[in-house]
Amino acid sequence: MRATVLEGPRRVSVRDVPDPALPGPEGVVVAVEHTAICGSDLHLYHDAPTGTGIRLGHEAIGTVLEAGPRVRTAKPGDRVLVSGVIGCGVCGPCLAGQPNLCLAGKAAAFGTTPELPGGQAEAMAVPFADLFALPIPEGVSDEEAVLLTDILPTGYLGALRASIRPGATVVVVGLGPVGIMALQCASLFGPARILAVDMVPERLARAERLGAEPIDARMAPGSAQVLEATGGRGAECVIEAVGADATVADALACAATGGTVSIVGVNLSPAMAFPMGMVFLKSLTVRTVFAPVPGTWAALVPLVQSGRFHALADTFTHRMALDDAPEAYELFDSRADGVLKVLLAPKD
Ligand SMILES: NC(=O)c1ccc[n+]([C@@H]2O[C@H](COP(=O)([O-])OP(=O)(O)OC[C@H]3O[C@@H](n4cnc5c(N)ncnc54)[C@H](O)[C@@H]3O)[C@@H](O)[C@H]2O)c1
Ligand SMILES: [Zn+2]
Ligand SMILES: [Zn+2]
């Protein structure tokens, strides 16, 4: 079958690889119909920290081709969406939908290690399918199903963990697909204002259409503009959705005394200079989360079905064939041509 493979920094290819095998009696093999590229894939794309040869992708939906004898929730022919993150499949947190907290230390995203080949492929193996693959619910479109594999849960947890109360001022730093999800989820909690920081004009305009006040970080640091817009106080709730050292620091600087900063951008930097004095003197609460995707479905599926998020389908600005993944990575990385997120289809 065809799969997207990381060949080195800024080099991906689509090539023939062995077909996936059933990953044990609790697993399924899924024929992928739609898959997407994530900002997390860009971290790997930029410097291949995990080495080369990784089969990429952790956002995929498709049809079950083969199911192990112990799978109860899906059978061959069923359409499923796959959690981007999985765990050991037997510990308490895994059973509770929080594989990120896996007690066996097996939390991992598809497409980041050789042991867990990714979903930017014609097919993928999904262990413990009852926990990590969800039959696509009625009233959920294919685009929405792809968003439920990772970035809508991530945006939701980013907002939930920012402790937004009705009337609060919220800042979202970074308006890529994850920030745009976080912005829409922040609205669920009734804030009075959402200030949205980025450097890409189309993304700032999109945030404004979604009801936020755009802040262009090319003009001056986002935090300086947030402080100006809040009479010097800063915001009670800040969501960081970039993952760079500079934006984590800027998100902390945006926060009001006593505020909460919820970081969902992936930052694995061992050397980031953390502004401890400022965090301490402002008595900030700082939270991070490596998305426990399945645990969010009970809240998010009804919200999607009810039409509460009206702009989800617009998230995908570009649709391309799986074989065009090298161009798709280049486009998403460049942030050119109004791109927000690229949907790939093996059969296009
Ligand atoms: N916590 C999780 O489980 C989880 C899940 C999915 C993605 N992520 C992470 O979320 C982050 C965002 O993902 P994405 O898909 O939206 O990626 P993206 O690269 O499309 O978005 C990043 C955005 O940040 C903006 N940005 C960069 N520097 C900035 C600055 N100095 N000031 C303001 N804005 C700036 C960019 O213009 C871009 O719009 C990534 O780090 C990704 O790894 C985390
Ligand atoms: Zn993702
Ligand atoms: Zn586990």
Write the layout of secondary structure elements.
Elements: E1 2-8, E2 11-16, E3 28-36, H1 39-47, E4 60-67, E5 79-82, E6 85-86, H2 92-95, E7 108-109, E8 123-126, H3 129-132, E9 133-135, H4 142-148, H5 151-160, E10 169-173, H6 177-186, E11 193-198, H7 201-209, E12 213-216, H8 222-229, E13 235-240, H9 245-254, E14 255-263, H10 276-281, E15 285-288, H11 297-305, E16 316-321, H12 325-334, E17 341-345
Parallel strand pairs: 10-11, 10-13, 11-12, 13-14, 14-15, 16-17
Antiparallel strand pairs: 1-2, 3-4, 3-8, 3-17, 4-5, 5-9, 6-7
Helix pairs in contact: 5-6, 8-9
This protein binds nicotinamide-adenine-dinucleotide (NAD) and zinc ion (2 copies).
Descriptive terms for the model:
28% helix; 2 domains; seven-stranded mixed sheet; globular; binds nicotinamide-adenine-dinucleotide; 348 residues; six-stranded parallel sheet; alpha/beta; 17 strands; binds zinc ion; Rossmann fold; Quinone Oxidoreductase, Chain A, domain 1
